[in-house]
Amino acid sequence: MSKLVWFMNASVFLYTDLFTGIMSSVHSDSFGNSTFVRPATFFINGFVNVPHAKYYYVFLSLVYAVTVFGNSFIMCIICLARRLHTGKYVAVFHLAFSDMCGSSALIPKLLDMFLFEHQYISFEDCLANLFYVFHFMNLQSLTLLSLAYDRLIAICFPLKYHSIITKRSMCLIMAVMWIFSVTFFAVLVGLLTRLSFCGSTVVNSYFCDHRPIYRLACNDNSLNIMMGRMCFGLLICLPLVLIVISYFCIALVLFKIAHNIDRTKAMKTCTSHLLLVAIFYIPVLSNNIAAALTSSVVPNVGIINISLTQTMSPMLNPIIYTLKTEEVMQSIKDLYKRNKVKITKEENIKYIRKN
Predict the structure, then answer these.
(1) Does residue 145 have a pLDDT over 90?
(2) Rounded CA separation 254/262 (Å)
(3) What is the mean pLDDT of residues 112-135?
(4) CA distance 308 to 110
(5) 244: Cβ–Cβ under 8 A, 6 or more apart, which residues?
(6) Band of the pLDDT at 29, cuts 50, 70, 90?
(7) How far apart are CA 337 and CA 343, in angstroms?
(8) Which of 12, 112, 143, 286 maximizes the CB count within 10 A of its CB?
(9) What pLDDT shows up at residue 347?
(10) Could you give the CA distance from residue 319 to residue 275 in angstroms, rounded to a whole number?
(11) With contact defined as beta carbons under 8 Å apart, do 40 and 73 qualify?
(12) What is the predicted pLDDT for the residue at 4?
């Protein structure tokens, strides 16, 4: 595990160093004879003067435990059940993996900082933390979009579904998502290295968040503001708009179905995905709209809202897919029966050998 963490951190540092080299000319042009200040550490402020805040961190630790168990369970079921070896469940597996990695990038570090009072974090570790939290959150958003594409093809073009939604095509979609996301957030993180922090280094968040960091800079941060807006527009709003369009097309097809039974069956295949979309996007949009429209939001309230938004969705996703998807439930039952028969046979063989 330590080797994996080291490798992941090293990859972010590599991207950051490459981008820093590209931006060196910008530094010299922007500052001239002024001093460029890069802090050794940031101080993650977290909650301020909140009584019994540690109970909230303990709650997040329980959320993390359920998240890891639930998503690991879903991934194991998909690997073991042959009926789930389809293009759709490649995307479901990827969503569970992204949920687990996103929570692992956020919650353990959060608990270490605030339960054990290690709130100082080095500049490099802070950038790595920012990269992984944003990268896996983006993968969750894009994976929900890929699942909407799956439902669109399944209902609007049912005869072509198995030729379009294959394991190979879904793996290709996931690969493109990873390349795009890694590149985008490498640039996002790299642009932070051109900022000079000559004043406060206190980050008013519970992790190394992008907006609180670039707001601390004492030189031009217009590029960082632009990237932050692009991040929200391209990676949150655009996928949601495309999902809404896909379900509008699905609704048009469903209204043309004459039999109510067939229409209900088709709608049931979309319910679990619609729940995931609502749980992920509604809190994210609500927090961003509230932050944009209201300047007097209490910082602690904002931190609680954002932290719940980022931690509850990965925990609920596997529960929803387990309970609301018939294929998954049937696969669990089949695996249970298979293991039960296997155990019974082994017990009978042992009994025969003893006698």
Answers:
(1) yes
(2) 9
(3) 91
(4) 13
(5) none
(6) very low
(7) 10
(8) 143
(9) 63
(10) 11
(11) no
(12) 42
